[in-house]
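Work Package 4 report. The design task specified in the project plan requires that, given a folded chain encoded as structure tokens, an amino acid be chosen for each position. We show below one input record used in the internal validation round.
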């Protein structure tokens, strides 16, 4: 599988994690690999390095040789996994250090690809499980004069897209914002009015790129077109590079797409790399459950994102570790409830389960019946602490309380004591298995 692409520009040609993202709530997004993000930006005429992907060392050698026929160059070989911290990671199978390497010859490209392809890259973000590296992205090493930061994301408080840019590129932008906030600039965009040329010219000035203002205007316009047309919720370029020949290039890019818009982004959906998802997330997604793996030992099943966050907070407060974020939303009944409980019960990392449901429109007695049905179908092996509050919660209590021992469920309608109980149960079960 050879895939070559790149945006070639001549000298002086006239162009004819994100900081603001709301991190309070886990969100569902389609993440693109770096090479996929590059291809997408390339379609929108955003300059990117000459690059190609390869599944193995033989393909990597062909890609590098093909590049070398165009002009002398050095190469950067990048493991393609959907996680940060690649450069400091290691491959589990061979303990090869680093998921990003600079090399000088096609033969060296092949050697690096051999050590990466088909291996598991472990980074700080991936955890010990690591992520499979199925292919590598080979790009031309750029001759960079200056690095910048640029992203386009959603400011959910303002209800508008926002460009975030800085002269401090190639580093963690959140650190820059914390330590030197005066180096961060923003442009909020009114989607009804579109981009304002004065804002873009000011951006060129703020970045000390007034001599390249036509390129800056071109770049911002085409990024915005891509963002809107492809239903992106983040496009991040870090670094945005000014090359020695005066060209501005998106040296490294990340793109995430709003899951809710995938019905009209079928081309991007078809490229989704499911191998990068935690297998539990894949199972949850098949039942339309909003599940995010965290890695603790207390499974959480909650309705409503706010209650889910509060549940995880109180578990941590009492010394426990949430295993997941699992929001069943307003459909916490029937088959979906059964599958949600089954997912947590079958998780080898989970020692206890906290089901914390508030019945508003949903009736607690109906929820209780769904939970009873699930307990009878699944043959529970993990103890459950159940808290139901809201509509018909007293009836739900009467349904569950007499059958606690039979069902393997502890019913507690007090949030605080239920949280302490689920942490205690998890700790005792964990200790008993050691």
């Amino acid at each position: 599988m050879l895939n070559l692409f790149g945006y070639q520009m001549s000298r002086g040609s006239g162009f004819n994690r994100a900081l603001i993202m709301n991190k309070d709530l886990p969100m569902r997004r389609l993440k693109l690999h770096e090479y996929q993000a590059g291809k997408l930006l390339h379609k929108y005429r955003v300059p990117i390095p000459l690059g190609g992907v390869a599944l193995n060392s033989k393909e990597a050698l062909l890609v590098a040789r093909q590049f070398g026929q165009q002009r002398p160059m050095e190469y950067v070989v990048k493991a393609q996994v959907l996680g940060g911290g690649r450069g400091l990671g290691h491959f589990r199978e061979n303990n090869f250090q680093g998921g990003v390497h600079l090399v000088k010859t096609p033969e060296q490209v092949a050697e690096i690809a051999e050590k990466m392809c088909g291996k598991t890259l472990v980074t700080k973000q991936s955890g010990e499980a690591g992520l499979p590296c199925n292919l590598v992205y080979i790009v031309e090493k750029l001759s960079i004069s200056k690095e910048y930061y640029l992203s386009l994301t959603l400011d959910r408080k303002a209800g508008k897209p926002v460009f975030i840019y800085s002269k401090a590129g190639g580093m963690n932008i959140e650190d820059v914002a914390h330590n030197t906030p005066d180096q961060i600039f923003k442009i909020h965009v009114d989607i009804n009015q579109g981009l304002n040329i004065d804002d873009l010219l000011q951006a060129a000035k703020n970045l000390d790129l007034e001599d390249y203002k036509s390129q800056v205007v071109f770049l911002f316009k085409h990024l915005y077109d891509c963002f809107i047309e492809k239903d992106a919720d983040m496009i991040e370029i870090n670094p945005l590079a000014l090359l020695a020949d005066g060209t501005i290039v998106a040296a490294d890019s990340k793109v995430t797409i709003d899951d809710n818009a995938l019905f009209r982004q079928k081309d991007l959906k078809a490229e989704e790399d499911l191998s990068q998802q935690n297998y539990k997330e894949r199972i949850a997604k098949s039942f339309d459950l909003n599940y995010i793996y965290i890695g603790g030992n207390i499974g959480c099943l909650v309705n409503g994102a706010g209650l889910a966050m509060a549940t995880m907070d109180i578990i941590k407060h009492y010394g426990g570790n949430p295993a997941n974020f699992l929001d069943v939303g307003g459909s916490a009944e029937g088959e979906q409830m059964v599958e949600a409980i089954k997912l947590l019960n079958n998780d080898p990392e989970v020692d206890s389960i906290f089901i914390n449901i508030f019945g508003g429109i949903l009736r607690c007695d109906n929820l209780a019946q769904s939970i009873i049905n699930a307990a009878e179908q699944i043959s529970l092996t993990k103890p459950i602490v159940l808290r139901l509050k809201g509509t018909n919660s007293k009836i739900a209590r009467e349904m569950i309380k007499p059958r606690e021992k039979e069902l393997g469920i502890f019913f507690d309608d007090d949030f605080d004591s239920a949280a302490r109980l689920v942490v205690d149960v998890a700790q005792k079960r964990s200790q008993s298995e050691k």
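The CA atoms of residues 134 and 236 lie 23 Å apart. Validation will be extended to a larger panel in the next phase.
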